[in-house]
Amino acid sequence: MTTANFLVKPAVVGGIVVSFDEDRGLSEIFRCHSSGKQEMAMSNLAPATPAATDDAIAGLRALLGDRLSTARSVREQHGKDESYHAPHAPDAVAFVQSTDEVAQVVRLCAAHGVPVIPYGTGTSLEGHVAALKGGVSIDMSQMRRVLRIGAEDLDVTVEAGVTRKQLNAELRSHGLFFPVDPGADASLGGMAATRASGTNAVRYGTMRENVLGLTVVLADGRVIHTGGRARKSAAGYDLTRLFVGSEGTLGVITEVTLRLYGIPEAMSAAVVSFPTIEDAVQTVIQTIQSGIPVARIELLDDMQMRAVNRYSKLAYAEQPTLFFEFHGTERGVVEQAEQVAAIANELGAGDFQWATRAEDRNKLWQARHDAYYAALALRPGAKGWSTDVCVPISRLAECISATKADIGQSRLLAPLVGHVGDGNFHLVFVIDPADEEELERARQLNDRMVMRALALGGTCTGEHGVGYGKIDFLAAEHGEALPVMRAIKQALDPAGLLNPGKILRP
Ligand SMILES: Cc1cc2nc3c(=O)[nH]c(=O)nc-3n(C[C@H](O)[C@H](O)[C@H](O)COP(=O)(O)OP(=O)(O)OC[C@H]3O[C@@H](n4cnc5c(N)ncnc54)[C@H](O)[C@@H]3O)c2cc1C
Beta strands 296-300 and 136-139: pairing type? Predict the structure, then answer.
């Protein structure tokens, strides 16, 4: 019997009815609200009055001059991310250039009771940057200085608006790189705020493992420094990890100190297809359980491969496929590849197609990173709803198999792709958001997938985060820990002005 320690009887959790089948584990979930999550996320938020907002904007204009924008197009751009979730424009956008300026903006907004929403590059996927109650978007894109490269200590301190590609371009001449890669060229502040990961996490970890310290502006404008450059510390509560993943709800991150790695002596990548998705997933599980230190191990299902072939003009087999990358010495890379090939061949893999030259590897990984846009291109005019879950590696096969069967029965176009070495996979629902019936089928499939992941000991999101799109699942996942999270929010942001309506319902 599957056990789940968070719910044993049918219950209403955050507006959702969850039922638990004693024999079969957590079996079903029914949404009991039909008006969508956004309205729920917005309820109980106290809006700033128009006069208070106008006063705050006047004060910000005096502070920032033309770096404060109320232009409609700028506001609209800052109220939407890359998801299907309904956007919400802020009342103004502040283009800040220093920690001190962020502190002044936050203080001024706090004095008028106006919300602030930190903004990196807007690539998040769960409605994270939507200004659900208006307020001021704090755009970090003009804080783009690499402040210090510690080549000897393998660390770096950057301003929060530096993007990962910019950082890696600057690190290359030092023989160093920063491995966390959420596909999009996101800001490092945004990546810290969402606890991002990506294809390399199986070897190098996520932002949780790679952020050493932060500078943060708190809700009252105080500036604190968390963590430090020491590789380990036992000094007090771990505030760095509290802010990592806080999605702008506890403070505005202005500087990030990160762990770096030497560029490996040798790298090679390979693509290999399998007769069934179960064979591909079993290859992943056995590879991880054997302790082979793969740098990347990515699964794309047959539908996603069709999309990638069309979009990136490639000619791979349109079957369940794994993309691998190996890092190490020349000899180590060959050894790892041989070990993985032995496992894959036992499970019926086709021939490995190798890419060892940097340009071939880059082309391969660009195709992988474009998977989202490739999926959207399958149905012109449709919108993408990308959702992810993560389970312990030993439960990955059953979670993916059940999800694939569910997709088949749900008559939805939903390619599957995943950072499977971490037990993490994604669906992209390619949907017509104006078709309420189709949207509802996608919602129900998403609900079932999340609750299945929770029942298997997993999480409702391995890397995309909560925003307002996954807000309903936190009670089911965290149970009695949720009020503790609420107490932390209350202590750090008593007026509820930092990115309201995200992670926790106000
Ligand atoms: C095609 C595609 C592929 C993706 N693949 C992955 C993936 O593989 N792995 C993954 O983890 N994610 C992935 N994502 C999601 C996204 O790229 C990440 O969530 C990323 O970390 C967001 O960074 P950002 O700079 O765009 O942040 P934004 O979208 O601007 O903001 C995200 C959240 O962080 C907060 N925030 C931003 N900056 C700060 C700051 N300085 N201080 C405090 N809070 C802040 C915002 O308020 C918001 O809540 C993907 C997105 C796309 C479009």
Answer: unpaired
204 lines ligand 1 (CB under 6 A): no
| 191 Cα–ligand 1 center, Å | 5
β 176-177/261-262 pair status: antiparallel
Q: Where are the alpha helices (DSSP H) in 215-357?
A: 239-243, 277-289, 302-312, 330-346
Between vectors from CA 24 to CA 18 and to CA 27, what angle results, nearest 5°?
25
End-to-end CA distance of the chain: 36
Whole-number Å distance, alpha carbon 275 to ligand 1 midpoint, is 35
Which pair of tokens denotes residue 136? Answer: 């001021």
Output the CA 185–ligand 1 centroid distance in Å.
9
Q: Residue 45: pLDDT band by 50, 70, 90 thresholds?
A: low
The CA-CA-CA angle for residues 13, 16, 18, to 5°, reads 75
Q: With a 6 A CB cut-off, is 81 part of the ligand 1 pocket?
A: yes
Q: Is pLDDT at 485 greater than 50 in this prediction? A: yes
234 contacts: CB under 8 Å, gap ≥ 6: none
Strand segments, DSSP code E, in 81-195 are: 92-95, 116-119, 136-139, 146-150, 155-159, 176-177
**116-119 and 136-139: which strand pairing?**
parallel
- Length of the chain as a residue count: 506
- Please state, as a whole number, how many other Cβ atoms lie within 10 Å of the Cβ of residue 173: 8
- Taking the CA of residue 129 as reference, the ligand 1 atom at the shortest distance is 48
| DSSP string for residues in 309-344 | HHHHT----SS-EEEEEEEESHHHHHHHHHHHHHHH
CB of residue 200 inside a 6 A radius of ligand 1: no
E strands in 120-159: 136-139, 146-150, 155-159
Q: Is 499 in the pocket of ligand 1 (CB under 6 A)?
A: yes
Give residue-wise pLDDT tens across range 435-446.
Answer: 999 999 999 999
Residues 316-372 have pLDDT tens digits of 999 999 999 999 999 999 999 999 999 999 999 999 999 888 898 988 998 899 999
- Which residue, chain included where needed, has tokens 């530096």? 162
What is d(CA 57, CA 290) in angstroms, rounded to the nearest whole number? Answer: 58
Euclidean distance between CA atoms 136 and 56, whole angstroms: 9
CB of 302 sitting under 6 A from ligand 1: no
Ligand 1 midpoint to CA 196 (Å)? 7
